[in-house]
Amino acid sequence: MSVALSTAQALTLWHDVALALVRDDEPDLSVRQVCILLTIYLEAPPHTVRDLAKKLGVTKPVITRALDTMGKLELVSRRRDEKDRRNVLVQRTVKGALYLERLADTIGNHAKSL
Amino acid sequence: MSVALSTAQALTLWHDVALALVRDDEPDLSVRQVCILLTIYLEAPPHTVRDLAKKLGVTKPVITRALDTMGKLELVSRRRDEKDRRNVLVQRTVKGALYLERLADTIGNHAKSL
DNA sequence: CCAGACTGTAACGGACCCGAAACAACCATA
DNA sequence: TATGGTTGTTTCGGGTCCGTTACAGTCTGG
């Protein structure tokens, strides 16, 4: 399945969704944060700090801090890996799933009305 | 023209584009900044600080500061309105147009390969 | 058992951003 | 030409994020 978008359509879609994100009451997540969040929810577990850092091409502290703030917002949770206690496993939460469901709705609705 | 996206498709698209933005060398713009940038390039001029603030539902200093940083990056430029010197007109630049062209390409390419 | 490699995290200094409020420049109208 | 309302900007205190570096906990192979 393939979706063809003109330049103007692509930018309009991005603009409309960004505008919706800015205008709603939720605290704005940075691009890095939503990228981490989406990786966790779209790709198969387990997710470790190291893996996420490598996938995004950033340093580990960036991931740690993003998990701190998204953890406060209850969008993700952390747990020690009991098999190898050096690892931290990043896990999904109900709030995180709802947040992304709403995001998908926003994207879908604006794509529909392009 | 209407584009139908499933939940997974919408999130995958967003993830892939966000990942591309994080991984490239350009400094990451915040969601607010790209929203301002897109408004300037997609909607008809003139664009004033006041109008942009109202459109985004944020305060004027937010716009001023975003224009400061994007001005440093040469993505936008400012000029006094000679007709009413209280106004500042926000204008497009070559670099800004190229930036958005690249963004549109990124979005389009990932949409095509959904 | 222990030295080294590997995890994730904390500390640091600097940069940026926020909202609220104060501010300076400018216009309009009486 | 004053005065009130408009514009965009600056300032203030507080917060977040960055990359680098240093650190503490954990595993593993000799």
Q: Keywords, please?
A:
5 helices; 114 residues; homodimer; mainly alpha; DNA-binding; two-stranded antiparallel ribbon; 9% strand
Structural summary, described in words:
2 copies of one chain form a homodimer. Chain A is mainly α and 114 residues long. Chain A contains 5 helices and 2 strands. The first copy, chain A, has helices at 7-23, 31-42, 49-56, 60-72, 94-112, and strands spanning 76-80, 88-92. A two-stranded antiparallel ribbon of chain A has the order 1-2. In chain A, a hairpin with a 7-residue loop joins β1 (76-80) and β2 (88-92). In chain A, α1 (7-23) crosses α5 (94-112). At the A-B interface, α1, α2 and α5 of A face α1, α2 and α5 of B. Chain A binds a DNA duplex (30 and 30 nucleotides) through residues 30, 32, 48-50, 58-66, 68-69, 81, 84-88.
Brief account:
The first copy, chain A, has 114 residues and is mainly α. The first copy, chain A, contains 5 helices and 2 strands, in the order ααααββα. A two-stranded antiparallel sheet of chain A has the order 1-2.
